[in-house]
């Protein structure tokens, strides 16, 4: 099924929404981002970013030049996370990430120099559900996208990164914690102030949007700022009333989190290859699609990335 078709079906499920609006909303975490001041395009300076979003993570440095020159220069590296670390401990995963960040920072070229006396700043994009408590802190909720790292529940992921950077001798200040969808919206807003929505279709899937603070019940008293903030919907967790095939259901039942993240499992990059593999395996068994015998590799889960 085409992604566009599936999205349309998700958005026009009248019976599901009319009969159980409250249940549908419970499927979406609608997490506060604490981002209530978006880029204007005037921002200047050198910044680092760490983007942990799935089976890969990226480290980046960027020189911003404001409205006159926007992004002056940028360098980044993408690092594959070893499979064993996706099922390791919190300390082992963050130590690996911090070591790669330290290696990248050590290669800083003459084009990127911190002003003397200024401490390095890094933005941390962490694309797994957290309960954000401030712009630079958030309590981990749960792993998704095939991760099953132990010891992270209830921890502040920024503190996990800080401790790992300290063990690597890396002296940087984590100035912001954002979800990848929130980071995408903020980054696009640097270029175009009319941007109000961002959608992620990658290893996982998510969306966020700009909302009025006075329309957010869980906001409590209004914060200072623009009167608006970004809401992280965590729509990958939507699991009510979606049209599923037998291949979707079988994959979900054999996953590490059955019954959860159903929308994400039907359309995102982490799972699409596995759905195709299951379809091909059935075809191969039923009609000798690849001749006899059926290739052994077709029976290997997630062999299609």
TrEMBL record:
It catalyses: D-fructose + ATP = D-fructose 6-phosphate + ADP + H(+); a D-hexose + ATP = a D-hexose 6-phosphate + ADP + H(+); D-glucose + ATP = D-glucose 6-phosphate + ADP + H(+). Residues 27-190 form the Hexokinase N-terminal domain. One of its GO terms (molecular function) is D-glucose binding. One of its GO terms (cellular component) is cytosol. Its EC number is 2.7.1.-. The keyword Signal applies. The keyword Transferase applies. Residues 1-22 form the signal peptide. Pathway: Carbohydrate degradation; glycolysis; D-glyceraldehyde 3-phosphate and glycerone phosphate from D-glucose: step 1/4; Carbohydrate metabolism; hexose metabolism. Pfam families: Hexokinase_1, Hexokinase_2. InterPro entries: ATPase_NBD (IPR043129), Hexokinase (IPR001312), Hexokinase_C (IPR022673), Hexokinase_N (IPR022672). Keywords: ATP-binding, Glycolysis, Kinase, Nucleotide-binding, Signal, Transferase. PROSITE patterns: HEXOKINASE_2. Residues 197-304 form the Hexokinase C-terminal domain. One of its GO terms (biological process) is intracellular glucose homeostasis. Belongs to the hexokinase family. PANTHER family: HEXOKINASE (PTHR19443), HEXOKINASE-LIKE 1 PROTEIN-RELATED (PTHR19443:SF63). This is Phosphotransferase.
